[in-house]
Amino acid sequence: RSELGVKRTLDEFGIPRSTFYKWYNNYLKAGYEGLKPTKRLTNRQWNSIPEDQKNLVVALALEHTELSARELAYKITDEQGIYISESSVYRILKQRGLIAAPNHILIAASNEFKDKTQFVHQMWQTDFTYFKIIGWGWYYLSTILDDYSRYIIHWELCDSMKADDVKRTVDAAIAKARLKTKRKPKLLSDNGPCYVSNDLKKYLKEDLGMKQVHGKPMHPQTQGKIERYHRTMKNVVKLNHFYHPEELIDALSDFVNHYNNNRYHESLENLTPADVYHGRSDKILEKRNEIKNSTIQKRRQLYNQQKLINL
């Protein structure tokens, strides 16, 4: 204990009184531990992600292994009410060893038709793809996809690829879509025999009032959306063997439900096809912006609280 007064002692050592009383208050609060240097907060740390939120990212990534970092980021915002950027989700997963570089990169067909659609039911895409069922032979999946939203309106497993199969699929799609206007969607397809048949052309034009559009021969990127959908779907569904058509139908139903309602598309502002198809886009995007602002505000408040503790 110095015989000199506090003021004179501080003057002798060149220590500001504000610094001394800060040390003194820290000592009263935490003893000698309170006098140890604290790690200074940098300007970047105010937006750091809390550890519990990092753990949430990892837990959801392990639960939903089919989701990319981008899809996971928006799932967290929509379902957990927390904003974590795509880059932050990617960084967290990479630090935990949950991100692997792809072995190869596929050059995909173009996503867009040359004239982009502006609204739902402006144009539909349709195509067939095939599956082999053990003991039953080949079956063919006919699909109707809304070009604007990527929503799968209707699909049907057929035992052939004939014009009648296309008619049946289109009829079912029209019934499900509950179109309220007389103007029907254009129907975009490739130049397969069933799609260029006079029977189908006459039916679409005269009975349904639908205009038919064909992609250029040897130019599959015209139908990039449905081509990509079928490729993605088959990569998942064909992981299993099927011994009865009903087994395949169940698997296809599960995938379509997931694709329509849970698959986030970057080209759709990271919304699902169902969000766009059913007109929920604006409301969801507005809610996301509110969550983002709220999350950032909470992080800033936490940062300021930590600064006060370290004073």
Automatic annotation (TrEMBL):
Transmembrane segments: none
GO MF entry, a single one: nucleic acid binding
GO biological process: DNA integration
Every Integrase catalytic domain range: 114-281
PROSITE patterns the UniProt entry points to: INTEGRASE
Gene3D superfamilies named among the record's database cross-references: Ribonuclease H-like superfamily/Ribonuclease H
Protein name: Transposase InsO and inactivated derivatives
Organism (species): Paenimyroides ummariense
